[in-house]
Amino acid sequence: MYRLKDLIHINRRFQSSVNIQLDLGIEEKINNYIPSQSSLVVLRRLLEAVVEDNAEKAVVLIGPYGKGKSHLLLVLLYLLSGASPRKIVPVLKKIEAVDEETAKLIRLLSIERKPMLPVLVSVSEDGLNHDFLIGLLEALKREGMEDILPD
Predict the structure, then answer these.
(1) Counting Cβ atoms within 10 Å, is residue 95 exposed (0-12), middle (13-18) or buried (19+)?
(2) CA-to-CA separations, 73 to 69, 129, 150, in angstroms, rounded
(3) Residue 66 burial by CB count (10 A; 0-12/13-18/19+): exposed, middle or buried?
(4) Can you give the pTM of this predicted structure?
(5) pLDDT, tens digit, for every residue of 74-100?
(6) Nearest to 70 by CA among 11, 127, 120, 144
(7) What is the Cα–Cα distance from 104 to 108, expressed in whole angstroms?
(8) 3-state class of 5 per DSSP?
(9) Under a CB-based contact definition with an 8 Å cutoff, are residues 67 and 97 in contact?
(10) Chain centroid, CA 5 distance in Å
C-alpha cells in the first residue's frame, strides 16, 4: 500500500522565496527562474526601457504576493549587471523557449556588454538622498569598488 509521501514529491526550488538584496547575483536563484509568457512581456518592456533611447523609463510593477515580481527583477538585474554570456545561457535557454524576441534582446545586451551597477534603495526616515547614497555605497562595495566615493 502506498503512502501519500511516496506518491507526491515537492520540487525544492519552489520552497524558497526571493529577496532581491540577499539573492542579487546568486546564479542558482537566477537559473531557477521559470519564465511565463506574461512575465517575459514585462521583462522585455524593462529591457527595452534600458536599451532604447526614446523608451518610457518609468515602470510600475504590481502583482499579487508570490507571483514572481522579485524573481523577475532579480533576473533583470543579473542580465543588466554584465554577467558573461556563458553564465546567462541556462536562463536564456528557458526564456528563448517561451519568447524568442525577449531572448534576442538579451543576446543584444550581452554582446554590447555595457554593465550597469544595480543600486538597491531601501527607504528609511533619514531622507531619500541619504537612502540613495547608502544604496550606492553598498552597490560599490558589493562590486569591489569601495575606492570610488560619490559626492
Answers:
(1) buried
(2) 6, 23, 25
(3) exposed
(4) 0.80
(5) 999 999 888 777 888 999 999 999 999
(6) 120
(7) 6
(8) helix
(9) no
(10) 34
Residue at grid coordinates 523577475 = 72
Query: CA angle at residue 138 from 87 to 116, to 5 degrees?
Result: 45
Nearest C-alpha neighbor of 135 from the set 77, 59, 84: 77
- Check pLDDT > 60 for residue 15: no
pLDDT at site 42: 92
Q: Are 75 and 118 in contact (CB under 8 A)?
A: no
Residue type, 87: K
How high does pLDDT run on average in the chain? 86
The DSSP annotation for 94-123 comes to: HHHHH-HHHHHHHHHHHHHT----------
